[in-house]
Design goal:
By secondary structure, this protein is an all-alpha fold. The chain folds into two domains: 60 residues, Winged helix-like DNA-binding domain superfamily/Winged helix DNA-binding domain (Arc Repressor Mutant, subunit A), CATH 1.10.10; 261 residues, Fic-like fold (Orthogonal Bundle), CATH 1.10.3290. It has 16 helices and two strands. The two termini are 36 Å apart.
Length: 345
Protein backbone atom coordinates (compact mmCIF):
# COMPACT_ATOMS: atom_id res chain seq x y z
CA UNK A 1 0.00 0.00 0.00
CA UNK A 2 1.15 3.52 -0.69
CA UNK A 3 0.79 6.37 1.81
CA UNK A 4 -2.55 7.52 0.42
CA UNK A 5 -4.03 4.03 0.56
CA UNK A 6 -2.89 3.66 4.16
CA UNK A 7 -4.68 6.94 4.95
CA UNK A 8 -7.84 5.55 3.35
CA UNK A 9 -7.61 2.52 5.65
CA UNK A 10 -7.34 4.86 8.65
CA UNK A 11 -10.39 6.72 7.34
CA UNK A 12 -12.26 3.41 7.01
CA UNK A 13 -11.51 2.55 10.65
CA UNK A 14 -13.42 5.65 11.73
CA UNK A 15 -16.26 5.39 9.23
CA UNK A 16 -18.40 2.27 9.15
CA UNK A 17 -19.62 2.85 5.60
CA UNK A 18 -18.51 5.43 3.04
CA UNK A 19 -18.44 6.26 -0.67
CA UNK A 20 -15.85 7.54 -3.12
CA UNK A 21 -16.99 11.14 -2.67
CA UNK A 22 -16.48 10.92 1.09
CA UNK A 23 -12.83 10.00 0.57
CA UNK A 24 -12.36 12.83 -1.93
CA UNK A 25 -13.67 15.26 0.69
CA UNK A 26 -11.45 13.64 3.33
CA UNK A 27 -8.42 14.58 1.21
CA UNK A 28 -9.78 18.13 0.67
CA UNK A 29 -10.13 17.49 -3.09
CA UNK A 30 -6.35 17.03 -3.35
CA UNK A 31 -6.89 13.92 -5.50
CA UNK A 32 -9.33 13.30 -8.32
CA UNK A 33 -12.28 10.90 -8.09
CA UNK A 34 -10.50 8.69 -10.63
CA UNK A 35 -7.41 8.40 -8.40
CA UNK A 36 -9.50 7.59 -5.34
CA UNK A 37 -11.52 5.07 -7.38
CA UNK A 38 -8.29 3.29 -8.34
CA UNK A 39 -7.19 3.23 -4.69
CA UNK A 40 -10.54 1.88 -3.52
CA UNK A 41 -10.47 -0.74 -6.27
CA UNK A 42 -6.98 -1.83 -5.21
CA UNK A 43 -7.94 -2.04 -1.54
CA UNK A 44 -11.08 -4.00 -2.44
CA UNK A 45 -9.08 -6.38 -4.62
CA UNK A 46 -6.68 -6.95 -1.71
CA UNK A 47 -9.75 -7.75 0.44
CA UNK A 48 -8.90 -4.91 2.83
CA UNK A 49 -12.17 -3.16 2.03
CA UNK A 50 -15.60 -4.70 1.54
CA UNK A 51 -17.48 -3.31 -1.47
CA UNK A 52 -21.27 -3.34 -1.67
CA UNK A 53 -23.90 -1.84 -3.95
CA UNK A 54 -23.53 -0.76 -7.56
CA UNK A 55 -23.19 2.39 -9.63
CA UNK A 56 -23.80 5.57 -7.67
CA UNK A 57 -24.69 3.49 -4.61
CA UNK A 58 -21.33 1.71 -4.22
CA UNK A 59 -20.21 1.80 -0.60
CA UNK A 60 -17.11 0.58 1.20
CA UNK A 61 -16.28 -0.62 4.69
CA UNK A 62 -13.27 -2.11 6.43
CA UNK A 63 -13.16 -5.88 5.88
CA UNK A 64 -12.67 -8.62 8.44
CA UNK A 65 -9.66 -9.75 6.40
CA UNK A 66 -7.87 -6.49 7.06
CA UNK A 67 -8.75 -6.65 10.74
CA UNK A 68 -7.20 -10.12 10.91
CA UNK A 69 -3.90 -8.91 9.41
CA UNK A 70 -3.57 -5.44 10.92
CA UNK A 71 -0.56 -4.92 13.19
CA UNK A 72 -1.55 -4.74 16.86
CA UNK A 73 0.30 -3.00 19.70
CA UNK A 74 0.88 -6.13 21.77
CA UNK A 75 2.09 -4.40 24.90
CA UNK A 76 -0.90 -2.06 24.95
CA UNK A 77 -3.35 -4.88 24.17
CA UNK A 78 -2.21 -7.07 27.04
CA UNK A 79 -2.03 -4.21 29.54
CA UNK A 80 -5.79 -4.65 29.86
CA UNK A 81 -6.68 -7.62 32.11
CA UNK A 82 -8.17 -10.44 30.06
CA UNK A 83 -11.55 -10.25 31.82
CA UNK A 84 -11.84 -6.59 30.81
CA UNK A 85 -10.85 -6.96 27.15
CA UNK A 86 -13.52 -6.61 24.45
CA UNK A 87 -13.13 -9.90 22.58
CA UNK A 88 -14.92 -12.48 20.46
CA UNK A 89 -15.95 -14.85 23.23
CA UNK A 90 -17.27 -17.60 20.96
CA UNK A 91 -16.00 -19.40 17.88
CA UNK A 92 -16.17 -17.32 14.69
CA UNK A 93 -17.76 -19.48 11.98
CA UNK A 94 -16.59 -16.95 9.35
CA UNK A 95 -12.92 -17.53 10.18
CA UNK A 96 -12.28 -19.82 7.19
CA UNK A 97 -13.73 -17.24 4.81
CA UNK A 98 -11.66 -14.48 6.42
CA UNK A 99 -8.45 -16.50 6.09
CA UNK A 100 -9.23 -17.58 2.55
CA UNK A 101 -7.39 -14.59 1.13
CA UNK A 102 -3.62 -14.08 1.03
CA UNK A 103 -2.13 -14.10 4.52
CA UNK A 104 1.39 -12.94 3.74
CA UNK A 105 2.24 -9.57 2.24
CA UNK A 106 4.30 -9.35 -0.94
CA UNK A 107 7.35 -8.49 1.16
CA UNK A 108 6.79 -11.44 3.50
CA UNK A 109 6.33 -13.81 0.55
CA UNK A 110 9.54 -12.57 -1.01
CA UNK A 111 11.43 -13.05 2.26
CA UNK A 112 10.10 -16.57 2.83
CA UNK A 113 10.79 -17.63 -0.76
CA UNK A 114 14.33 -16.22 -0.54
CA UNK A 115 14.91 -18.15 2.68
CA UNK A 116 13.53 -21.30 1.07
CA UNK A 117 15.96 -20.94 -1.83
CA UNK A 118 18.76 -20.43 0.67
CA UNK A 119 17.78 -23.62 2.50
CA UNK A 120 17.58 -25.64 -0.74
CA UNK A 121 21.01 -24.37 -1.71
CA UNK A 122 22.48 -25.19 1.71
CA UNK A 123 20.87 -28.64 1.79
CA UNK A 124 22.12 -29.50 -1.70
CA UNK A 125 25.70 -29.33 -0.45
CA UNK A 126 25.17 -32.28 1.89
CA UNK A 127 26.02 -35.59 0.24
CA UNK A 128 26.30 -37.67 3.42
CA UNK A 129 23.05 -39.22 4.62
CA UNK A 130 24.64 -39.73 8.03
CA UNK A 131 25.27 -36.01 8.44
CA UNK A 132 21.79 -35.18 7.11
CA UNK A 133 20.26 -37.54 9.67
CA UNK A 134 22.30 -35.95 12.46
CA UNK A 135 21.17 -32.48 11.48
CA UNK A 136 17.51 -33.53 11.43
CA UNK A 137 18.09 -35.16 14.81
CA UNK A 138 19.36 -31.80 16.11
CA UNK A 139 16.20 -30.10 14.88
CA UNK A 140 14.08 -32.85 16.41
CA UNK A 141 15.79 -32.53 19.81
CA UNK A 142 15.47 -28.75 19.92
CA UNK A 143 11.87 -28.91 18.73
CA UNK A 144 10.97 -31.59 21.29
CA UNK A 145 12.52 -29.47 24.03
CA UNK A 146 10.95 -26.13 23.12
CA UNK A 147 7.52 -27.42 22.06
CA UNK A 148 7.32 -29.28 25.37
CA UNK A 149 8.54 -26.19 27.26
CA UNK A 150 5.63 -24.22 25.76
CA UNK A 151 3.39 -26.81 27.43
CA UNK A 152 5.09 -26.29 30.80
CA UNK A 153 7.65 -29.10 30.59
CA UNK A 154 10.75 -28.40 32.73
CA UNK A 155 13.30 -30.51 30.85
CA UNK A 156 16.33 -28.46 29.79
CA UNK A 157 17.72 -28.66 26.26
CA UNK A 158 20.68 -30.76 27.44
CA UNK A 159 18.32 -32.92 29.49
CA UNK A 160 16.17 -33.45 26.42
CA UNK A 161 19.22 -34.45 24.40
CA UNK A 162 20.31 -36.96 27.04
CA UNK A 163 16.82 -38.46 27.17
CA UNK A 164 16.40 -38.78 23.41
CA UNK A 165 19.92 -39.92 22.54
CA UNK A 166 20.88 -41.94 25.63
CA UNK A 167 17.54 -42.67 27.33
CA UNK A 168 18.71 -40.82 30.45
CA UNK A 169 15.68 -39.72 32.47
CA UNK A 170 16.09 -36.28 33.98
CA UNK A 171 16.55 -36.10 37.73
CA UNK A 172 13.39 -34.91 39.44
CA UNK A 173 11.36 -34.99 36.23
CA UNK A 174 7.88 -36.47 36.25
CA UNK A 175 6.89 -39.49 34.22
CA UNK A 176 4.55 -37.27 32.20
CA UNK A 177 7.31 -34.79 31.33
CA UNK A 178 9.57 -37.58 30.16
CA UNK A 179 6.81 -39.16 28.08
CA UNK A 180 5.94 -35.83 26.48
CA UNK A 181 9.51 -35.43 25.21
CA UNK A 182 9.61 -38.98 23.86
CA UNK A 183 6.24 -38.51 22.17
CA UNK A 184 7.57 -35.44 20.37
CA UNK A 185 10.50 -37.52 19.12
CA UNK A 186 8.17 -40.21 17.81
CA UNK A 187 5.83 -37.72 16.13
CA UNK A 188 8.74 -35.90 14.48
CA UNK A 189 10.09 -39.18 13.14
CA UNK A 190 6.64 -39.99 11.75
CA UNK A 191 6.70 -36.72 9.82
CA UNK A 192 10.22 -37.35 8.54
CA UNK A 193 9.55 -40.92 7.44
CA UNK A 194 6.12 -40.28 5.88
CA UNK A 195 6.52 -36.89 4.24
CA UNK A 196 4.25 -37.63 1.28
CA UNK A 197 1.39 -38.30 3.71
CA UNK A 198 1.19 -34.59 4.55
CA UNK A 199 1.29 -33.10 1.05
CA UNK A 200 -2.51 -33.15 1.14
CA UNK A 201 -3.79 -32.93 4.68
CA UNK A 202 -6.49 -35.24 6.04
CA UNK A 203 -8.39 -35.10 9.31
CA UNK A 204 -7.22 -38.65 10.02
CA UNK A 205 -3.59 -37.52 9.88
CA UNK A 206 -4.25 -34.82 12.47
CA UNK A 207 -5.91 -37.33 14.76
CA UNK A 208 -3.05 -39.80 14.27
CA UNK A 209 -0.29 -37.28 15.09
CA UNK A 210 -2.28 -36.20 18.14
CA UNK A 211 -2.45 -39.82 19.30
CA UNK A 212 1.34 -40.12 18.98
CA UNK A 213 1.96 -36.87 20.85
CA UNK A 214 -0.36 -37.78 23.72
CA UNK A 215 0.53 -41.47 24.06
CA UNK A 216 0.58 -42.70 27.69
CA UNK A 217 -0.40 -39.25 29.02
CA UNK A 218 -3.98 -40.08 29.95
CA UNK A 219 -5.39 -37.82 27.24
CA UNK A 220 -8.44 -38.96 25.28
CA UNK A 221 -7.59 -39.64 21.65
CA UNK A 222 -10.96 -38.84 20.10
CA UNK A 223 -12.54 -35.56 19.05
CA UNK A 224 -13.53 -33.54 22.09
CA UNK A 225 -17.19 -33.86 23.15
CA UNK A 226 -17.17 -31.56 26.20
CA UNK A 227 -16.63 -27.88 26.76
CA UNK A 228 -13.20 -26.53 27.71
CA UNK A 229 -11.94 -23.22 28.99
CA UNK A 230 -8.67 -21.53 28.02
CA UNK A 231 -6.41 -19.92 30.63
CA UNK A 232 -5.97 -16.17 30.25
CA UNK A 233 -8.87 -15.44 27.91
CA UNK A 234 -12.67 -15.19 27.82
CA UNK A 235 -12.73 -17.11 24.53
CA UNK A 236 -14.70 -20.35 24.78
CA UNK A 237 -14.21 -22.95 22.01
CA UNK A 238 -17.07 -24.99 20.61
CA UNK A 239 -18.43 -27.74 22.87
CA UNK A 240 -20.38 -29.77 20.30
CA UNK A 241 -18.52 -32.78 18.87
CA UNK A 242 -20.33 -32.66 15.52
CA UNK A 243 -19.52 -28.97 15.08
CA UNK A 244 -15.91 -29.50 16.11
CA UNK A 245 -15.53 -32.27 13.54
CA UNK A 246 -17.19 -30.08 10.90
CA UNK A 247 -14.84 -27.17 11.67
CA UNK A 248 -11.82 -29.47 11.51
CA UNK A 249 -12.88 -30.58 8.03
CA UNK A 250 -13.41 -26.96 6.95
CA UNK A 251 -9.91 -26.19 8.22
CA UNK A 252 -8.49 -29.12 6.24
CA UNK A 253 -10.34 -27.94 3.11
CA UNK A 254 -9.00 -24.40 3.52
CA UNK A 255 -5.43 -25.60 3.98
CA UNK A 256 -5.59 -27.92 0.97
CA UNK A 257 -6.88 -25.07 -1.20
CA UNK A 258 -3.93 -22.86 -0.34
CA UNK A 259 -1.23 -22.79 -3.02
CA UNK A 260 1.52 -21.65 -0.65
CA UNK A 261 2.87 -24.29 1.70
CA UNK A 262 3.93 -21.44 3.98
CA UNK A 263 0.28 -20.45 4.37
CA UNK A 264 -0.68 -24.08 4.89
CA UNK A 265 1.89 -24.46 7.68
CA UNK A 266 1.01 -21.14 9.32
CA UNK A 267 -2.74 -21.67 9.30
CA UNK A 268 -2.70 -25.22 10.63
CA UNK A 269 -0.41 -24.10 13.45
CA UNK A 270 -3.04 -21.68 14.74
CA UNK A 271 -6.38 -23.19 13.65
CA UNK A 272 -6.03 -26.56 15.40
CA UNK A 273 -5.49 -24.61 18.61
CA UNK A 274 -8.36 -22.22 17.84
CA UNK A 275 -10.84 -25.03 17.23
CA UNK A 276 -9.47 -26.97 20.23
CA UNK A 277 -10.19 -30.25 18.47
CA UNK A 278 -9.00 -32.40 21.37
CA UNK A 279 -9.38 -32.22 25.14
CA UNK A 280 -5.63 -31.52 25.43
CA UNK A 281 -2.51 -31.42 23.26
CA UNK A 282 -3.91 -29.08 20.60
CA UNK A 283 -1.02 -26.61 20.39
CA UNK A 284 1.68 -29.29 20.27
CA UNK A 285 -0.33 -31.09 17.58
CA UNK A 286 -0.64 -27.87 15.60
CA UNK A 287 3.13 -27.27 15.72
CA UNK A 288 3.89 -30.85 14.67
CA UNK A 289 1.40 -30.89 11.78
CA UNK A 290 2.80 -27.54 10.64
CA UNK A 291 6.29 -29.03 10.57
CA UNK A 292 5.01 -32.12 8.77
CA UNK A 293 3.63 -29.85 6.03
CA UNK A 294 6.94 -28.00 5.73
CA UNK A 295 8.81 -31.30 5.45
CA UNK A 296 6.33 -32.62 2.89
CA UNK A 297 7.12 -29.63 0.68
CA UNK A 298 10.90 -30.07 0.94
CA UNK A 299 11.33 -27.25 3.40
CA UNK A 300 12.86 -27.02 6.85
CA UNK A 301 10.81 -27.57 10.02
CA UNK A 302 10.71 -25.03 12.84
CA UNK A 303 12.36 -25.89 16.14
CA UNK A 304 11.02 -22.76 17.91
CA UNK A 305 14.32 -22.77 19.84
CA UNK A 306 14.48 -18.97 20.10
CA UNK A 307 10.78 -18.27 20.64
CA UNK A 308 9.78 -16.50 23.83
CA UNK A 309 7.15 -18.77 25.39
CA UNK A 310 5.09 -15.92 26.82
CA UNK A 311 5.10 -14.02 23.53
CA UNK A 312 4.08 -17.19 21.68
CA UNK A 313 1.13 -17.60 24.03
CA UNK A 314 0.18 -13.95 23.58
CA UNK A 315 0.13 -14.44 19.81
CA UNK A 316 -2.19 -17.43 20.19
CA UNK A 317 -4.51 -15.57 22.57
CA UNK A 318 -4.61 -12.55 20.24
CA UNK A 319 -5.96 -14.83 17.52
CA UNK A 320 -8.45 -16.45 19.89
CA UNK A 321 -9.82 -13.11 21.05
CA UNK A 322 -9.92 -10.91 17.94
CA UNK A 323 -8.92 -13.35 15.16
CA UNK A 324 -5.84 -11.27 14.45
CA UNK A 325 -2.99 -13.35 13.04
CA UNK A 326 -0.37 -10.60 12.64
CA UNK A 327 1.72 -11.38 15.74
CA UNK A 328 1.55 -15.13 15.24
CA UNK A 329 2.59 -14.63 11.61
CA UNK A 330 5.55 -12.52 12.68
CA UNK A 331 6.70 -15.27 15.05
CA UNK A 332 6.31 -17.88 12.29
CA UNK A 333 8.50 -15.88 9.89
CA UNK A 334 11.12 -15.27 12.61
CA UNK A 335 11.26 -18.98 13.47
CA UNK A 336 11.56 -19.97 9.81
CA UNK A 337 14.39 -17.50 9.32
CA UNK A 338 16.16 -18.87 12.40
CA UNK A 339 15.76 -22.45 11.15
CA UNK A 340 17.30 -21.62 7.77
CA UNK A 341 20.17 -19.71 9.38
CA UNK A 342 20.88 -22.30 12.08
CA UNK A 343 20.50 -25.74 10.48
CA UNK A 344 22.23 -27.30 7.47
CA UNK A 345 24.75 -24.47 7.31
Amino acid sequence: MNKRQKQIIEFAKKNHSFQNKDVVVFFDDKYSRETITRDLSFLSHQKFLHKSGAGAFVAYSLSDTYSSLEEVDIQKYFETPYFQRDVKEIFNFEIFHILGNDIFTAEEKEKLEKLQRQFINNFSKYDSQTIINKEFERIMIEFSWKSSAIEGNTYSLLGTEALIKNNVIGKGKTKEETQMILNHKDAFNEAIQNRERFIKLRSADIEYIHSVLTKKLGITKNIRNKGVGVIGTKYRPLDNEAQIREMMQKMVNLINKKASFFEKALLVSILIAYIQIFEDGNKRTSRMISNAILLAHNSIPLSYRIVDVEEYKKAVILFYEINNISYFKRIFVEQFEDAVNNYFK
